[in-house]
Amino acid sequence: MNRTIKIALGSIVIGIIVLGLKTVAWQITGSVALLSDALESTVNVATAVAALIAIRIAQRPADRSHPYGHHKAEFLSAVLEGVMIIVAALLILEEAYQGIRNPQPLDAPVSGLLLNGFAGCINAVWCMVLIRQGRRLKSPALVADGQHLLSDVITSAGVILGVVLAIAADRPILDPILAGLVAVNILWSGWKVMSASLGGLMDKAVSDDLLRDIRSTISDHADGAIEAHDLRTRHAGRMTFIDFHLVVDGDTPVAQAHAICDRIEAALKKRLDDAQITIHVEPEHKAKHSGVLVL
After folding, report:
1. Domain locations in the chain?
2. Angle at the Cα of 267 (from 217 to 215), degrees rounded to 5?
3. Which one of 55, 110, 145, 262 has the largest count of C-beta atoms within 10 Å of its C-beta?
4. Which residues belong to any copy of the Cation efflux protein transmembrane domain (predicted)?
5. Residue 237: what pLDDT?
């Protein structure tokens, strides 16, 4: 079992613990705002399970039906997370509407707030682990899960502050109003998760900084070639796909042209551990005098 799978399993365990704490906090207080926080935690558990499934699929080797691998499964998981976050927000809005129509005083607020605060602290620590490790392991599913948890932490902090204000002002209606604001924040979080993942599904290119590094690496290790043009890149989970045309002198032996390609490929893979590189060799008359010029 690799580290990515272990972290994904940890998310499920943490999610169940946090959900239990927040559910108890809601039950002993009757707070609609705390209920909204607990509902978001049910999404945390569901998305953690979806992330685990997606990560296991994404790590399968390429096969006859999927010659480029299964890496995009993680992007699908992240889109699913976004959809589930939005569904949770709509459920919270319904609860908030009913609470505004019939506001209720809160019971045992101190113990409930302490439980909710403790659950929020657990989420805060774990979301930092997910985001940091997800970026290091190039796992979109873990990063999306961490970003969702971060929004949950912010939500929990806002909920606690709002409930305290509702009690201090003796205005129970502030509790469902706060739940509605929480739902709006969750909707925004869900949209951000979905939009980031859709970029991966649509074969979004690498960042400008990384593209400059790739161009520089090709130029520095292409001695014997004339130019590289039609450079294209895309991300798919932890994989980076790079393809381009490499122009060499028409009299260059095949073995020598192949050696140049091997040298470039080795340099790119040293820069990007998980890179799949395709190089199309062309004779000099195919030069476009653009792209990466080899000096």
Report:
1. 3-201, 208-293
2. 20
3. 145
4. 11-202
5. 64
> Which of 185, 220, 209, 235 shows the shortest CA–CA distance to 78?
235
Q: How many whole angstroms from its chain centre is CA 226?
A: 39
CATH number of 208-293: 3.30.70.1350
* Ranges of H-type helices in 137-247: 140-168, 174-201, 208-220
Given the DSSP bridges, would you call strands 225-236 and 292-293 parallel, antiparallel or unpaired? antiparallel
Instruction: State yes or no: pLDDT of 264 exceeds 90.
Output: yes
For the chain, how far is it from start to end, CA to CA, in angstroms? 46
Query: Going by DSSP bridges, is the β-strand pair 239-248/225-236 parallel, antiparallel, or unpaired?
Result: antiparallel
Q: For the domain bounded by 3-201, which CATH number is listed?
A: 1.20.1510.10
What CA–CA distance (Å, rounded) separates 268 from 213?
Answer: 9
Work out the widest C-alpha separation in the chain, in whole angstroms.
87
Torsion of CA 151, 155, 158, 164, to 10 degrees: -160
Q: Which residue has the tokens 């469902």?
A: 176
Q: What is the DSSP letter of 285?
A: G
Evaluate if residue 269 carries a pLDDT over 70: yes
Determine the pLDDT at residue 181.
80
Greater confidence (134 vs 151) lies with: 134
- The Cα–Cα gap between 10 and 18 comes to 12
Which structure tokens are listed for 285?
A: 């008359």
By CB atoms closer than 10 A (0-12, 13-18, 19+), residue 90 is: exposed
Enclosing H/E stretch for 244:
strand 239-248
SS3 content of the chain, % helix, strand, coil (to 5): 70, 10, 20
